[in-house]
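Entry:
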Amino acid sequence: MLLDIDYFKSINDNYGHECGDKVLSVFAQHIQKIVGDKGLVARMGGEEFAVAVPSVNPVDGLLMAEKIRKGVELQPFTWQQKNALSHGKVLASVVVAHRTRTLTDDFNKLMVEADTCLYRSKKDGRNRTSTMRYGEEVV
């Protein structure tokens, strides 16, 4: 799963890098709280995070992704005692990729598919969860 904070550059531009760092920290903590010990959470760079969770059912990954996205959307974010960012909310686009073979065989392919789907989600309106299964996008 790839997660990307929507409009992150504007957060840094409008509120400063200290605020951006706080958003990244709160975002990462929220993801880690939901994933728990079921998987691995990693920051890929900038405002992009990856989550690897072993599961035999792709629906489980989609449900977890939507739980993360919705939780981020509903969590108010304040900066210097004021609501900040699009009505005090951080928004995220999330994409889920699923394969049945071993992770080492598929990791690079999963990342390419997830990245492609993530950019499509952003183009189609942001703040959404989508998945790509066997080369087909499912929203």
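Strands lie at 2-5, 40-45, 48-52, 78-79, 82-83, 92-98, 129-133, 136-138.
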